[in-house]
Specification:
By secondary structure, this protein is of the alpha+beta class.
Length: 559
């Protein structure tokens, strides 16, 4: 099957949507929904995935970009969760997505002599040896002098020494989209901008859903033997749609991150620091550092969570506590906020709620999965599909996704090992090809074909010079992007990596993608104006004093 998610694919999929009963309808295009679609399709089931916005438009594009076991969960004695996550980390690094997931080192400064090094060191040693964790180098204990050589930006009096350990990172939005493309490659139908407006019933049983194409307004009825809800922070909305009480609820916790230029912090490693609530990361991200995150309750608009002035100040205050030269607001290039779907419990503190997941069948025919963490998406997907195939009335193979490389993984290592020759043949610099390989893997050859057909696509984007025009076109010809925001925010990260949030690049990008999406001049202008309004609303929200004011400022662009 083709993994080319272009407008022709979407049109063909919509033309046949609802024509035949299918085995599984997946609601939600985040990492778990995409993972469930891939898992089910790889077992030989007929699958359709519908997503109201874009792949990873919610939580799955707004994480800390880490594939990790959750070092802090060891302190909570949640060994099973850590072991499971570290096993998944190893699979992603070695087999499933070596082109998208890569090692990253962290320095953990110590503030107390003797006892803290022994206590945390024991935890990190356990972390290094659990669940296939040896995919990465072992941790090292460092003196204060050696730690400062790795991290000159730190104040000498901010630590007595440090521990250096390794985890992994990923571009979460691209990873989620790649899972969806891999699902399509295995026969699943994957559709964005398609919203479930109601559940289809046969008596008490759920047998499908009513779906509206938000681009055309056309309504469809999709009949399915099983419906899987992987709606994350919107799980309780699905609860309301069923009209029955779920065995669990989801509570949303807001996490905010800021980006600053790489040269602003003299560090050769990332940082992790304990805070009064959780931990704070400083994570290398291309030409930037990502600093985050917060962990606070959020009960406002779930589609557009906002970072307030208080959130930004919290991050600056905590990171500046260990820096020789404090960061200021002027250093911030980008900001983003995301919501974590936490299984609700008795605790009033979101930092202590469960990151484990749960699967339930609140009404016959409807499977709901909630909770969990990004790293364990594949396990979550397999668990909910396992539940869905019970009593399906036809044989279904066990999950095979632990052995199933994602699109672009096969052949990646060979291209990376011969990067100089690959670059020479493509007519691009070695640095550029290395970057492209880390975004597309072996699918980079598709971009080379685009550039070979039109040399102008090998040129950088004005205002976002790190990206090539070919990447922009590829986003709509292969990766399912339908709007300017999809390209600027998720297929690329221009919206958080450029100081102007991508406003300078937006007109050129709209001009590049417009012909492939059938836009006329008015459509192009409208997309640019809509994106400009969004940026202005987000900047206004960043200046707001609290969540309520920030939420109101952000919603101005949604009116």
């Amino acid at each position: 099957m083709s993994a080319r998610l272009d407008p022709a694919y979407r049109a063909a999929a919509l033309n046949t949507l609802g024509d035949h009963d299918i085995d599984v309808l997946v609601i939600g295009g985040g990492v778990v929904g995409a993972g469930a679609a891939l898992d089910a399709a790889a077992r030989g089931l007929s699958v359709t995935l519908v997503e109201a916005r874009d792949f990873a438009a919610g939580t799955s594009s707004r994480s800390s970009k880490l594939i990790h076991g959750g070092l802090r969960y060891l302190e909570q004695l949640d060994f099973a969760l850590v072991r499971e996550a570290l096993k998944e980390r190893s699979l992603l690094l070695r087999k499933l997505a070596p082109h998208l997931v890569r090692p990253v080192s962290f320095l953990l400064p110590l503030q107390h002599r003797v006892w803290e090094r022994a206590y945390i060191g024991a935890g990190v040693a356990l972390y290094d040896t659990m669940g296939g964790a040896r995919a990465l180098p072992m941790h090292r204990h460092l003196s204060r002098t050696r730690a400062l050589e790795l991290a000159p930006a730190l104040r000498a009096d901010a630590m007595t020494g440090a521990i250096r350990y390794f985890d992994a990172q990923v571009d979460d939005a691209r990873h989620t989209m790649t899972i969806a493309r891999t699902a399509a490659q295995h026969g699943a139908t994957v559709l964005t901008r398609t919203k479930v407006t109601g559940l289809l019933r046969d008596g008490a049983r759920v047998v499908g859903a009513h779906v509206t194409d938000l681009e055309s307004g056309r309504e469809y009825t999709v009949r399915a033997r099983r419906v899987i809800s992987a709606t994350g922070v919107w799980t309780d909305e699905m609860n309301q749609m069923t009209g029955v009480e779920f065995p669990f609820h989801v509570r949303t916790s807001k996490g905010v991150h800021i980006l600053v230029p790489r040269e602003r912090l003299d560090l050769d490693t990332g940082l992790i620091m304990r805070t009064e609530k959780s931990v704070l990361f400083v994570i290398p991200w291309g030409n930037h550092w990502i600093i985050g995150t917060t962990d606070t309750d959020w009960a406002l608009d779930k589609d557009h969570p906002s970072a307030s002035n208080a959130d930004v100040q919290y991050l600056l205050d905590h990171v500046n506590a260990v820096l020789r030269e404090p960061l200021t607001r002027a250093d911030i290039v980008g900001t983003y906020a995301g919501l974590r779907p936490l299984l609700s419990g008795a605790s009033s503190d979101t930092a202590t709620l469960s990151r484990e997941h749960a699967v339930a069948e609140p009404v016959p025919g409807l499977l709901v999965i909630a909770g969990g963490k990004y790293t364990t998406y594949r396990v979550m997907a397999a668990d909910v599909v396992d539940a869905a195939v019970e009593g399906l009335g036809r044989a279904a193979a066990p999950s095979v996704t632990a052995q199933l490389p994602l699109l672009g993984a096969v052949g990646y290592q060979e291209l990376a090992a011969d990067v100089h020759s690959v670059a020479q043949r493509a007519g691009l610099s070695t640095t550029t090809v290395q970057r492209l390989l880390g975004r597309y893997g072996s699918a980079v050859c598709d971009l080379f074909e685009l550039i070979a057909a039109d040399a102008d696509l090998g040129k950088p984007i004005t205002g976002a010079e790190e990206y090539l025009a070919a990447e922009i076109v590829y986003a709509v010809t292969h990766e399912g992007a339908l709007h300017l925001d999809d390209v600027l925010t998720r297929r690329t990260r221009i919206s958080i990596e450029s100081r102007d949030r991508g406003l300078a690049a937006a007109p050129e990008i709209a001009w590049l993608i417009g012909p492939h999406l059938g836009w006329d001049a008015a459509d192009t202008d409208r997309e640019v104006a809509r994106y400009r309004d969004r940026v202005q609303a987000e900047l206004a929200a960043n200046e707001a004093a609290d969540d309520a004011t920030a939420n109101a400022a952000r919603l101005v662009a949604c009116a």
